[in-house]
Amino acid sequence: MKRHEFLRELHKVVGNRNYLEIGVNDGRSLRLARVPSIAVDPAFKVTSEIRCDVQLVKATSDEFFARPDPLAHLRGGRNPWHNLRRGRHPLGRWHRTTLDLSFIDGMHLFEYALRDFVNVERHSDWASVVVFDDMLPRSVDEAARDRHTTAWTGDVYKLIEILDRHRPDLVTVLVDTRPTGQLLVFGADPRNEVLRESYDDVVAEFLVPDPQKVPEAVLDRVRAVPPEALLEAGFWRPLAHARNRGLPRSRGWAPLRDALRRLTAGC
Ligand SMILES: C[S@@+](CC[C@H](N)C(=O)[O-])C[C@H]1O[C@@H](n2cnc3c(N)ncnc32)[C@H](O)[C@@H]1O
Which contacts (CB < 8 Å, 24+ apart) does range 147-153 have? Predict the structure, then answer.
């Protein structure tokens, strides 16, 4: 299954109420969204027809997340006093907007993707789904930090090991999509500071000059699940139900985590 086919189906099974995209380019992934969305890219050149209420942000993802209220658009751009006028607490829904589905496909260097995840996670929770693109390079050339191929993944595949090592509380699922695979992350915890605190050490450890030593397991797609198996899994409907009802992590996460582990056990 090709990456955009998988993403199209993913939007359906996640049943997300909002969407964040980092890295838009010509809009071929953004055109799959049907819900209020924010899409960030310093150099987008959208040529696809877009069929959602989207704020297109012309900035880098770091600049976007540094804004005082980056997700305002997902609340219809309302300020807190809107709630007060409607008889609700002013900080009620304004205080925190949770991202249901995020797609990280901006700069293809691992330290950028790591910062994107840290920032996305601050606005996510256990029921959110975060997707990274281009996590399974097919060659060392494709994985180079200094781009010299047409198709380019860069070294974002390093996020697989970084998350496994530093955030064993998350569940990561590698997906065998064409051409270069994707990674889904479940169980986000906005209060977890581990990645933020260890960022400098992680970058110092993983930042090495080309050629990159891409693990054989990555090149051979050892842990990757077939996209069809993931899309057909039974946990999507309960996950959407739990998220929409605002079920707390203490009640919703364990069954989802166990279902995900069963899915990935054979890979
Ligand atoms: C691979 S393309 C995105 C493709 C798109 N998501 C799709 O699937 O059709 C990567 C995009 O990331 C953008 N980009 C590069 N650096 C970025 C950054 N720091 N923040 C956000 N986007 C960035 C580039 O301008 C480029 O358009």
Answer: 147/108, 151/179, 151/180, 152/108, 153/108, 153/180
Our answer on whether the CB atom of 28 is closer than 6 Å to any ligand 1 atom is yes
Structural domain boundaries in the chain: 3-265
Answer yes or no: is the C-beta of 25 below 6 A from any ligand 1 atom.
yes
Average pLDDT, rounded, for the chain: 94
**How far does the centroid of ligand 1 lie from the alpha carbon of residue 60, in Å?**
9
CB atoms within 10 A of CB 7: 23
Per-residue model confidence as pLDDT tens digits over 123-163: 999 999 999 999 999 999 999 999 999 999 999 999 999 99
| pLDDT at site 79 | 53
pLDDT at 188 over 90: yes
- Cα separation, 179 vs 188, whole angstroms: 27
Q: Residue 22: CB within 6 Å of ligand 1?
A: yes
Q: Is the CB of 42 under 6 A from ligand 1?
A: yes
Instruction: Using the predicted structure, report yes or no on whether residue 93 has a pLDDT greater than 50.
Output: no
Superfamily of domain 3-265: Vaccinia Virus protein VP39 (3.40.50.150)
What residues form DSSP beta bridges with 20? Answer: 38, 102
**Most ligand 1 atoms within 8 A of CB, residue of 24, 28, 149 to mutate:** 24
Q: Is the CB of 138 under 6 A from ligand 1?
A: no
pLDDT band at 76 (very low <50, low <70, confident <90, very high): confident
pLDDT of residue 78: 52
Query: d(Cα 14, Cα 102) in Å, to the nearest integer?
Result: 11
Q: What is the C-alpha separation between 61 and 32, in angstroms, rounded?
A: 20
